[in-house]
Design a protein that fits this description.
By secondary structure, the protein is an alpha/beta fold. The protein folds into 2 domains: about 60 residues, Arc Repressor Mutant, subunit A (Orthogonal Bundle), CATH 1.10.10; about 180 residues, Rossmann fold. It contains 10 helices and 15 strands. It starts with a helix and ends with a strand. It comes from Lacticaseibacillus suilingensis. Pfam families: DeoRC, HTH_DeoR.
Length: about 250
């Protein structure tokens, strides 16, 4: 039993190094234990200094100090991303005109769309995913490719977006603070600011761990958000950041 526990801890620590954060469900699936055992493992690992315990699992000790790259983000929150993308998909209606952001969670949304809609995106990966969807009218926004963020931008994009009354803009968040939604690139933050003005609905899709991350450029204030999709319900303190009119959709509740 002791050796099994040690091997289990080694595997959990290996995955934590790779993914930076593990939920209880991730641990249950990875090492084949019950929910109670996974919770006890998290407590033991946190006490040993292997990570920091969170409400839903465990994170690496350096998690949240920097903004991970796109390829690193693809490895995180696979179960949560899938659940949030499914929730976002339920808000898409045939015949609608939508913007889909360069979030990795929203890549899962793009991969899931199978209805007659028009989608605008500046994301290279969304464009690839949507290019094989015969029912989707795809509009790719042009410009220079940001290789790290994997999105295109040129100043003319802002004018183009400002002329479109999107039924909804699905926007990811790099960081969320009391005064707004933040992004790591100034030009991308300008895109989000324009969308917040142009879209009939602003739908932000974000894990709650983004409340712990900082990014330099504000896209828009929290009051601009109509719907927030997260992986869990907000705490009372978190909920106070937002307008009472905000529609909150917790994918795993």
């Amino acid at each position: 039993m002791t050796m099994y526990r040690e091997k289990r801890f080694e595997e959990i620590k290996r995955l934590l190094t790779e993914r930076k954060e593990l939920s209880i469900d991730d641990i249950m699936q990875a090492v084949g234990v019950s929910r109670d055992t996974a919770r006890r493992d998290v407590v033991a690992l946190a006490a040993s200094g292997a990570g920091r315990r969170t409400r839903g699992g465990i994170v690496s000790l350096t998690f949240g100090h920097t903004v991970p790259s796109y390829s690193e983000r693809l490895k995180l929150f696979s179960a949560e991303k899938t659940a949030m993308a499914k929730t976002a998909l339920s808000l898409i209606r045939p015949g609608g005109v939508y913007f889909i952001d360069d979030s990795t969670t929203l890549l899962k949304l793009s991969q899931s769309i199978n209805s007659e809609v028009t989608v605008y995106t500046h994301s290279l990966d969304n464009a690839i995913a949507l290019s094989v969807k015969g029912d989707v009218t795809l509009r790719i926004l042009g410009g220079k490719l940001n290789h790290h963020g994997r999105f295109f931008f040129e100043p003319a994009t802002l004018t183009q977006l400002g002329r479109i009354a999107f039924d909804a803009a699905f926007i990811g968040a790099t960081a969320i603070s009391k005064d707004g939604v933040y992004f790591p690139y100034a030009d991308d933050a300008e895109v989000k600011a324009t969308l917040a003005q142009a879209a009939r609905q602003v739908i932000v899709v974000s894990e709650t761990q983004k409340f712990k991350i900082q990014a330099p450029y504000r896209g828009f204030p929290l009051a601009a958000i109509d719907t927030l999709i997260t992986e869990r319900a907000l705490t009372p303190a978190e909920r106070q950041w937002f307008s009472p009119k905000l529609k909150l959709l917790a994918a795993n509740s």
